[in-house]
Amino acid sequence: MSVTILSSQPVVGAVEAMRLRDNFTLAVEAGSTSVILDLTGVQELSGAGLAAVTNIATRGRRNGFSVRVLLPDENSAASCTIDQADLRRFLRPGGVWNSLPTKQTGSADPATGRTGRNSRFMKYLPGQGARTRTGRAAR
Questions:
Q1: How confident is the model at residue 128 (pLDDT cuts 50, 70, 90)?
Q2: How many CA atoms lie within 13 A of 119 on its CB side?
Q3: 134 C-beta neighbours (distance < 10 Å), count
Q4: Is the per-residue pLDDT at 38 higher than 90?
Q5: What mean pLDDT comes out for the span 99-105?
Q6: Does residue 41 or residue 109 have the better pLDDT?
Q7: Could you tell me which residues come within 8 angstroms of residue 128 by beta carbon, excluding any fewer than 6 positions away?
Q8: How far is CA 7 from CA 42, 58, 72, 94, in A?
Q9: How many CB atoms lie within 10 A of CB 7?
């Protein structure tokens, strides 16, 4: 088992985010089975940085790698960005990306793929014209 620790500069902008993603890819290609994304020294996290964090955690989860995210100091702007994006709810208290599947209520309608709950997003199906929020065809 090999563990790779990815750490970042104090400001994670677009260039630093790209570097984190590239280093994650290199770690996986080198045979690493576990990755720790250390954000403890990060003070500012841009939208690109936030996307990189979620991308790394999601890619690790999909490919069966253990990904731990060590969050920044709670008094930093980066921590505020993570809170505003509601990223903490996807993390377990120990900093491990939650790999448990979410419990889905209701069964999906085979025609639309939607569950019995109202969707926040409109559904556009081929040949049926524009759909409204309630799922009814627009007149």
A1: very low
A2: 16
A3: 8
A4: yes
A5: 43
A6: 41
A7: 137
A8: 9, 18, 11, 18
A9: 14
Place of tokens 């994670």: 12
Q: What is the 3-state secondary structure (H, E, C) of 62-109?
A: HCCCEEEEECCCCCCHHHHHHHHCCCHHHECCCCEECCCCCCCCCCCC
φ, ψ (nearest 5 deg) of residue 108: -80, 140
Residue type for 71, please? L
Tell me the one-letter amino acid at 128. Q
Average pLDDT, the chain: 75
How far from 5 is each of 26, 35, 56, 120, CA to CA, in Å?
Answer: 12, 6, 12, 38
**Exposed/middle/buried for residue 90 (C-beta within 10 Å: 0-12, 13-18, 19+):** middle
Backbone angles phi, psi at 79, to 5 degrees: -65, -40
